[in-house]
Amino acid sequence: MGLSASQARLLTITARKSDCEYESMRLSHQKIALSRDMNVASAEYQDSLEQTKLMWDFYGNDSQANELSYNLLMSPSALNNFTPTPLTDTAGRVVLTPEMAAAAKAAGIPQEGMEGLPSSDVRNKFIEALGTTGVITDTMSKNIQKTTYNQDAGVGSSDLVNVNIKQLTKTDLITKYFSNIELDVTDLLLNAGGSDLNLIIYDKEGKNELGKIEYNNEGDSTTAKFDLNGKQKTIDAKKLSLADLFNGDIQITLQGTSWDNKQLRGKNGLYDWSVVDKVATSTLWSSIFKNIENTLKTGDTYTDAALGYAKNKITEMMECLSYVDENGKSVSNFDNAAFRNNHRGKSEKKITRWISDNTKNYVGYVSEGNSGDKYNDGYGMNLTSMSEAYLTYFAMYMEGTSNTTYSVDKLKSNCNFVDEFFDFSVLTAADTTGNNMQIAGFYDTLFNQICTKGWVENDKVDDKDYVQKMLKDGSMFLSSIQDDGYYYQDNYSTNSYVKEVTDESKIAQAEAKYNREKEKINYKENVIDMKMKNLDTEISALTTEYDTVKSVITKNIEKSFKRYDA
User: What is the phi/psi pair of residue 496, to 5°?
Assistant: First the structure.
C-alpha cells in the first residue's frame, strides 16, 4: 500500500513538474516576443527622428513661414503674394477639393481640360459657384465678377490681374495719397464740459511753437498760419490734411486742461476721464483708420489683420482704465498712459508747461494730475507721433512682430518708427474700382490653369499631412509660374518657397509613444519575471520532493526483494 501511494505521488509530482516547465517555457517565449516588440518600437522611434515637414515661406524671412497646406497654396493672401501654386497630380491636372470641383462642374469645365480658354461668362459661372459652395464669400464672388476677366493670367503673362500693385516708400505714400485726405477735428476743439483742448503745432525738434488753434465756443477761426522753411503754412482744423500728421518738419499736438472738477470727477471720481473719453471717441481716429485702411487694404486676410492690429494698439494707447476698489469706488488706472504724474496745488501755468514738455516726448496720452478742487488737471497727446506709431504697428505686423526691425515705445526717443526702407503696397485698378483686384487676379489665374491643364477631385487634400505625404512620395507636385508667364510642374524640393525641416512636434509625439510602449513592455516583463521566478522555486521544490519519493520507492523495493530472498 505504501509503495502504491508513493508511486501515485511520484506521478503527480512528475505531472506538475512538467506543467511548470511547460509554463516556464511559454513565459520565456513571451519574453522573446516582448523583446521583438521592443525592437519594433525602437525602430519606429529611430525612424521618427527623421520625420520632416514642409514649410511655405514666400518672403524667405522665416517670420512668415507656415506649414504647407492646400489652403495656403490655393487661397489668396499676402502669404503667397496673391499667386496660386496649384497642387497637381502626375498627369499635371489641378487637384481640387469637392467644393472647388463642384464649381468647375457648374462652369462646364471638363476634367481633361479645354482646347483653349473660355469666355468671361464661363469664368463668372465658376466664380459664382465658388461663392455658392462656400469657397469664397458671396460678397467676394460678386466683387470678382465685376472685374474684367484676365484671360492671359498665368498662360503667357506674369501680370496676373488687370491692375497695378504699386510698392511705395513712406514718403511717396504720404505725398501721393495722404495729401488728398482731409480730416475734420473741430469736435476736439469745442467744449468738453469743464475742459479745453487746443491744437498746438511745433517744429520738428519740438523746441518752438509755430501755431495754435485754441479752444473756442463761438465758432471762431479754426486755422493757424505760420512760417515753415520760409513759406507760409496753414493748418485748418476743419480740413486737416492727413499728410500734415506725417509732415517731418512739424509736430501737431493736442493739449488742454480740465478745471470743472465737480463735473469731471463727481460721477466716477476719475481724473482726466472726460478729456480722455472725448479724445478716444473723436472722429479724428475713425477718419484716420478708415482712410489709411482704404489706401492700404488689399483684400487679403493678412493685410486686414495687420490693419486691425495697428488699430487695436493705437486704441489701447488712448484708453484711461479704471477699477472698483474694496469700497466700491471707481478709481482711475493710468497703466495705459504714456506718462502720468500727480501734483498737489500746482498752478495752471506749471501744469500747462509740463503737459507741453511731456506731450512732445511721449507716444500716447500724457496726464498731469493736480489734487484739490480749485486746481487744473492737464492732458496731452502728440497726434504726429500717434500717426507714426499706427503706420509702424502695421509695418511690424507685415514683417512679423518677432522679426521686425521697427518698434513703438511710450518714450518717443526709444521708438524706431517705420522708414523709407519699408515698402507699402497700394492697389490701383485699371478698369474697376474697389480693393479686391488681387483676389480677382488670383482666381483668374487658377481658373486658367484648371481650364488648360484639367482637374481631378480629391476629398483628402484639406488634410495637410496627407498633402505633404503625397508631395514627398511623388504622387503630387506643385505647379509654379515662371518668368515666361506660364506654369510648370515641379517637385517640392526644387520649389524656392518650400523648405523641408525637422518636424519637432511629430518627433515629440513619437518619443512619447515610444516611452509609453517601453513602460508597457517593461511592466509585462516584470510580471513574467516574477511568474518565472515562482515557477523556478516550485520546480526546485518539486525536484527535491521527486527525489525524496523516488528514494522511498527504491528502498521499499529493495526491502521487498530482500524479504523474498530470505
Answer: -70, -15
Q: Are strands 455-457 and 377-382 parallel, antiparallel or unpaired?
A: unpaired
482-507: pLDDT as tens digits: 888 899 998 888 888 888 776 566 66
Measured at the CA of 289, the angle between CA 377 and CA 419, to 5 degrees, comes to 90
User: Rounded to an integer, what distance in angstroms lies between the CA atom of residue 426 and that of residue 392?
Assistant: 16
**Residue 48 parent element (H or E):** helix 2-48
pTM of the predicted structure, to 2 decimals:
0.54
Q: Which residue has the cell 465658376?
A: 126
Q: Is the pLDDT of residue 188 over 60?
A: yes
Q: Please, how many CA atoms are within 13 Å of residue 220, restricted to the half-sphere of its CB?
A: 11
The DSSP element (H or E) to which 250 belongs, if any, is: strand 250-258
Q: State the cell numbers at 350.
A: 506749471
**Cα–Cα nearest to 418, from 447, 397, 432:** 397
Please state whether beta strands 377-382 and 250-258 pair in parallel, antiparallel, or not at all (unpaired).
antiparallel
Contacts of 158 (CB under 8 A, 6+ apart): 481, 483, 484, 485
Please name the amino acid found at residue 62.
D
* Orientation angle between helical segments 437-453 and 138-145, nearest 10 degrees: 80
Please give the full DSSP string across 124-179, using - where no structure is assigned: HHHHHHHHHTTSS-HHHHHHHHTSPP-TTBTBTBS--SSEEEEEE-HHHHHHHTGG
Predicted confidence (pLDDT) per residue in 509-530, tens digit: 766 776 787 788 788 878 887 8
- What is the radius of gyration, based on Cα positions, of the chain? 40
Structural contact between residues 272 and 256, judged by C-beta atoms closer than 8 angstroms: no
- Cβ atoms of 454 and 94 within 8 Å: the answer is yes
Joined grid coordinates for residue 166:
504699386
The residue ranking higher by pLDDT, 45 or 182, is 182
